[in-house]
Design brief:
about 170 residues; alpha+beta; 2 domains; 6-stranded antiparallel sheet; two-stranded antiparallel sheet; 8 strands; about 30% helix; disordered N terminus; Secreted protein
């Protein structure tokens, strides 16, 4: 899944603050206020002291990479949300393909195994297929594709075995 842009006031400020170090403007306004504009007041930051604003600005600069990597919670999709496709999306099955990685160590599956993906989705093996790997794999890539009659099929990269799965979250 691709990461969504940060949609918060801090995200907006981060993107512009890093490049606005010497921005021209009202000398009485902080860089953060200059960058955020109306969002500055919307976030309630006009009540903060200049010292508090300076601490926030410094934090944003020091943690820029971490803040850029954030994904807004509402942008995450559970496995159940992916399967709740409307008729139009079902006709275009390729758009519903889930490509991710298994979070952590993977040793295989059997009926009832729940696999958690790096994108936060959880899928439960719903058939009697099994897969045992000779050595545990670290974060292997997986593809989950829709099938007929609302079924979903999981495949681990490098293995030809597929498993019928259902969303577990």
């Amino acid at each position: 899944m691709r990461r969504a842009p940060i949609r918060s006031a801090a995200g907006l400020a981060l993107g512009l603050l890093v490049f606005a170090g010497s921005a021209a403007g009202d000398g009485a306004k902080s860089r953060l206020e200059q960058v955020m504009g109306a969002k500055f007041r919307e976030a309630g930051l006009e009540r903060a002291t200049p010292a508090e604003i300076a601490v926030l600005e410094q934090f944003i600069i020091e943690h820029a990479d971490e803040l850029r990597a954030l994904e807004h919670r509402s942008d995450r999709k559970s496995a159940a949300a992916v399967t709740g496709a409307d008729a139009e999306r079902e006709r275009r099955a390729d758009k519903n393909v889930v490509s991710s990685r298994i979070a952590g160590e993977f040793k295989g599956w059997r009926q009832g195994t729940t696999l958690t993906l790096e994108n936060g989705q959880q899928w439960r093996i719903d058939d009697n297929s099994t897969l045992t790997v000779p050595r545990a794999l670290a974060n292997p890539a997986v593809t989950i594709k829709p099938g007929t009659f609302g079924n979903w099929w999981l495949r681990v990269e490098g293995y030809n075995t597929t498993a019928k799965v259902k969303p577990a979250n």
